[in-house]
């Protein structure tokens, strides 16, 4: 298998089956990445438990070739691969690498997908080079990083000195296309 033909794509999974899908992909020797975050859930009986939940619910990132498509879609719990029309939506290698390095080193949690706000670029630290929307919560600065291909975002705490304005020009914005999910077809822009 040629290294250059491998690319990262997102698989849309059954709800609450992300860990099982990642395990099955591992058994089939298909590289996958399931970013998790820690949270404390308090049950009705006031018992608190620390949980590891998927950072992007219903999605698992897979590094694969076009020929692996059938093997991936045969995994129980995988509904589809995120695509624009008939083309798989590839994720840049640096985004996956930055997410991998940042998940364990910073407080990171899911955040609603945002379209408006000031664009910033992280200029230092584990998530160097990623761009997102700056959100201010009380006295802390947070950057919301959007994974465009799956229309999901995460919020990460970043020191204000590690941020710089990102020049977003119309040429840098992705082309509009359709997102295909089980039972859902919509515009990405």
List keywords for this structure.
single chain; 189 residues; mainly beta; Alpha-Beta Plaits; SH3 type barrels; 6-stranded antiparallel sheet; 4-stranded antiparallel sheet; globular
What is the structure about, briefly put?
The protein has 189 residues and is mostly beta strands.
Q: For the record, give the distance between the C-alpha atoms at the N and C termini, rounded to a whole number.
A: 35 Å
What is the domain total for the residues? 2
CATH topology (fold) name of the largest domain: Alpha-Beta Plaits
Order of secondary-structure elements: EHEEEEHEEEHEEEEEEEE
General form? globular
Number of helices: 3
CATH architecture group name of the largest domain: 2-Layer Sandwich
Low-confidence stretches: 169-189
CATH class annotation of the largest domain: Alpha Beta
Mean pLDDT: 80
Radius of gyration: 17 Å
**Percent of sequence in beta strands:** 35-45%
Count the strands?
A: 16
The quaternary structure here is: single chain
* CATH superfamily heading of the largest domain: NusG, N-terminal domain
SS-derived structural category: mainly beta
What spatial order of strands do you see in the largest sheet? 9-13-12-11-10-14
The amount of helix comes to 10-25%
Describe the structure.
This protein is mainly β and 189 residues long. It folds into two domains: 1-91, Alpha-Beta Plaits (2-Layer Sandwich), CATH 3.30.70; 94-168, SH3 type barrels, CATH 2.30.30. 14% of the residues lie in helices and 41% in strands. Strands 9-13-12-11-10-14 form a six-stranded antiparallel beta sheet, with helices on one face. It has a four-stranded antiparallel beta sheet with strand order 2-5-1-6, with helices on both faces. Strands 3-4 form a two-stranded antiparallel sheet. A hairpin with a 2-residue loop joins strand 7 (83-84) and strand 8 (87-88). The longest helix is centred in the middle third of the chain and has 11 residues, at 93-103. The termini are far apart.
């Amino acid at each position: 298998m040629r290294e250059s033909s491998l690319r990262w794509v997102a698989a849309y999974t059954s709800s609450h089956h992300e860990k099982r899908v990642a395990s099955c992909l591992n058994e089939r020797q298909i590289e996958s990445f399931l970013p998790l975050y820690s949270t404390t859930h308090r049950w009705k009986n006031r018992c608190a438990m620390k949980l590891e939940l998927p950072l992007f619910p219903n999605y698992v990132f897979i590094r694969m070739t076009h020929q692996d498509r059938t093997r991936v879609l045969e995994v129980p719990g995988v509904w589809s691969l995120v695509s624009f029309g008939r083309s798989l939506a590839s994720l840049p290698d640096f985004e996956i690498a930055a997410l991998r390095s940042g998940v364990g080193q910073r407080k990171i949690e899911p955040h609603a997908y945002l379209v408006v706000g000031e664009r910033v670029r992280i200029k230092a630290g584990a998530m160097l080079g990623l761009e997102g929307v700056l959100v201010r919560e009380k006295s802390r600065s947070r950057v919301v990083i959007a994974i465009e291909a799956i229309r999901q975002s995460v919020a990460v705490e970043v020191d204000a000195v590690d941020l710089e304005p990102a020049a977003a020009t119309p040429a840098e914005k992705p082309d509009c296309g359709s997102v295909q999910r089980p039972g859902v077809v919509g515009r990405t822009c």
